[in-house]
Amino acid sequence: MAGLFVGPNQMASAVQLSSIIIPSVSVPACPQGFMMGSNAGIYKNEAPVHGVIISHALDAGTTPITNGQFDSVIGSFGANRFALMAPDPKTSYHRLIAIADDKKKLELPSEIAFRALEETLNISIGADEQSRITSMGGLRVFEMERVKQGMMFEGVNKPAVGVRWYVAAAFGDLLSILTGEPGWRLPTEAEWEYMTKGKDQEDYGDDVNAWLSRATAHYNANATLEVGQKKPNSFGLYDMIGNVSELVADWHGEYPSNQVVDPTGPKVGKSKVRRGGYYGDEDYRNLRAAARNLENTSGPLDDVGFRVVRGI
Hints:
Blueprint: H1 8-17, E1 24-27, E2 30-36, E3 50-54, E4 58-61, H2 67-75, E5 81-85, E6 95-100, H3 111-121, H4 127-134, E7 139-143, H5 165-179, H6 189-197, E8 245-251, E9 260-261, E10 272-275, E11 292-295, E12 304-305, E13 309-311
Parallel strand pairs: 3-9, 8-12
Antiparallel strand pairs: 1-4, 2-3, 4-13, 5-6, 5-7, 8-10, 10-11
């Protein structure tokens, strides 16, 4: 198999072979808006506080993706390379378009395959974009691998770390293909903060003493913990704070001062954003829902993981 495009036919067989279970919960839309950011944070990039409307409900993974889940999804395709299309001009999302297991050759989709891909992932690929992809002008090709070292990678129920941002971004598309449920992806930064703050938007606020305890977050430790061992927040989501920082879809940028609807961040940037603090944090303020940290897209770390969501 020199190259592989994954369309509906391959998807069906992959689902039959797959035993992947990624528990999720429904997080309601927030049409009334919530207040994102902090004017009292330790980082200037947390300000200004501004209103954000989340217009859609989310199906959200209850925990960060685990080692077992990551290896099961990637292993289902028997491939070690993938290609990502340049981001849609209307969003910051990259889209998976091809997979191959031969390091010397990456086959591009045919016209029929483009249409099948649209159906599988519920996306639209215009003629201009298709031409750019076919000429290899709009592609970034990455190895489907993690940088593995040390005990962080031991244990199927520990969070998957050492994952480059582009691999994490493609994971959602692979999961969509396997499950037949279009739209799995990294959450936007706004979705992540909304999910973390919970039903009353009071979870993990600036008053750290009001919520910080070892019952709700894994921090000030030497290693990751199996997911789901601490108490969930009010949406039923585990490990939003502590254990591993979580990658989000957005490039880092300054916040607006006005209310926005379903923001996706800047269209281009130098760094992605990771949220939620991690197991080794000693400064508890880094664990607040509003705290922001930067992530180099080519520099996977053993304290950074990710979870997936999809709009419903």
